[in-house]
């Protein structure tokens, strides 16, 4: 796991009081000292106390405290919070983090570490929502689903990323994988960011989302190609070992099937310009093959028919990047590897070291936090999590 983060510093010599009254509903800008500076004990890796002053707003008459950089009303410094969060994200248990910090002279309870992680995750969710609403513009969005256990039950986690930069746009828990549920989650997001292209796996629900949203849809070529080549290899092996019975009244033969499997492989790997025509011809060759009866296995002829039909129906989705490149939009990924990397590093990696989650909010908090700490070319300023 690669984490890019900068832990906040504590500097008692740097004090930046707010220029506007911090109380809601008051925009006062003039203040006066309310009392002498007082000393406040604090838990930190280097210092044991800070000096705090109090100011009075001349507009509303209320007072507020002013803290030095890296400190707040909390008993911990931002540096200690950031360190506890970072240690947990890197794989140490809550109790383990408390033990490490105790060795550094900072005794906090493991539940405090848990609270720090949850609060940071909630802040990241807030930051993402604000960014998306205010300025998030993403032309190519990657979407996918993954699964975790919460209270012993499997839950579906939906994730959307900027496929160009790998920045996570949203992570949400879905009740199911139905098309309606996917659409309800993803369509508004595509609209907010002004997406032009959606890259996903071959799940049917994403096809409907792309069509209803009016965006171009690229289905991961790697998934499709691997599945088709696997089908070609297994079917050809079976035909060579034991030629299947030719359907009654059909002009097909085992040799024809082998030739067509080779042609299907060439179409997938070569992506010829006339692929749609070739797939149409292949489909009509197998269109009248009878479906298996209840309790029977599908014949190689019928499986060939279904594979070709699916490719023919969705070929434009498998080669969407080619069409976009011809229209002057090159460089778009033909796989959803970007999304899968975010899932693997940002969600699955930390999940492997825990014994499941106890509530769904915890799932979202942790997933948002870990992905946020890993994305971007520069180190994440963790101080943003404590403002």
Verbal overview:
With 387 residues, the chain is α/β, with parallel strands linked by helices. It has 3 domains: 5-112, no CATH class; 127-217 and 335-374, Ribonuclease H-like superfamily/Ribonuclease H (Nucleotidyltransferase, domain 5, 2-Layer Sandwich), CATH 3.30.420.10; 222-326, no CATH class. The protein is built from 12 helices and 12 strands. Helix 4 packs across helix 5 (204-213), helix 6 (221-241) runs antiparallel to helix 7 and helix 8 packs antiparallel against helix 9.
Features:
387 residues; alpha/beta; elongated
Low-confidence stretches: none
Morphology:
elongated
Number of domains: 3
- How do the helices and strands follow one another from N- to C-terminus? EEEEEEHHHEEEHEHEHHHHHHHE
* Largest beta sheet: strand ordering: 9-8-7-10-11
CATH homologous superfamily caption of the largest domain = Ribonuclease H-like superfamily/Ribonuclease H
Tally of contiguous helical segments: 12
Structural class: alpha/beta
Helix content: 40-55%
Instruction: Indicate the mean pLDDT.
Output: 92
- Annotated CATH topology of the largest domain: Nucleotidyltransferase, domain 5
Major β-sheet, in short?
A: 5 strands, mixed
What is the highest CATH level, the class of the largest domain? Alpha Beta
């Amino acid at each position: 796991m690669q984490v890019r983060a900068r832990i906040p510093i504590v500097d008692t010599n740097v004090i930046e009081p707010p220029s506007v009254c911090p109380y809601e509903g008051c925009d006062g800008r003039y203040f006066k000292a309310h009392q002498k500076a007082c000393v406040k004990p604090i838990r930190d890796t280097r210092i044991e106390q800070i000096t705090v002053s109090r100011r009075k707003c001349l507009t509303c008459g209320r007072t507020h405290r002013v803290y030095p950089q890296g400190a707040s009303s909390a008993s911990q410094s931002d540096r200690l919070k950031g360190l506890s969060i970072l240690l947990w994200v890197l794989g140490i248990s809550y109790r383990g983090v408390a033990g490490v910090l105790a060795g550094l002279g900072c005794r906090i309870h493991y539940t405090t570490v848990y609270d720090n992680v949850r609060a940071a995750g909630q802040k990241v969710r807030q930051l993402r929502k604000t960014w998306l609403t205010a300025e998030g513009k993403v032309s190519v969005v990657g979407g996918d689903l993954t699964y975790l256990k919460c209270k012993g039950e499997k839950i579906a986690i939906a994730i959307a990323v900027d496929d160009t930069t790998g920045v996570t746009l949203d992570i949400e828990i879905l009740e199911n994988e139905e098309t309606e549920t996917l659409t309800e989650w993803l369509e508004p997001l595509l609209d907010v960011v002004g997406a032009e292209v959606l890259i996903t796996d071959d799940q049917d629900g994403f096809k409907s989302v792309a069509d209803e949203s009016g965006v171009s849809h690229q289905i991961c070529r790697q998934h499709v190609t691997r599945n088709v080549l696997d089908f070609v290899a297994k079917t050809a092996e079976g035909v060579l070992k034991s030629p299947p019975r030719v359907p009654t009244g059909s002009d097909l033969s085992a040799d024809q099937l082998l030739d067509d499997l080779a042609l299907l492989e060439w179409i997938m790997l070569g992506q010829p310009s006339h692929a749609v025509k070739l797939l149409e011809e292949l489909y009509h060759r197998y269109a009248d093959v009878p479906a298996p009866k209840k309790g029977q296995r599908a014949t190689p002829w019928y499986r060939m028919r279904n594979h070709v039909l699916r490719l023919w129906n969705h070929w434009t989705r498998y080669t969407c990047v080619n069409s976009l490149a011809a229209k002057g939009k090159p460089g778009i990924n033909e796989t959803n590897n970007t999304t899968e990397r975010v899932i693997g590093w940002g969600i699955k990696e930390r999940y492997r070291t825990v014994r499941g989650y106890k509530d769904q909010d915890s799932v979202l908090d942790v997933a948002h936090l870990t992905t946020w700490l890993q994305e971007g070319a520069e180190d994440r300023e963790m101080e943003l999590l404590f403002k």
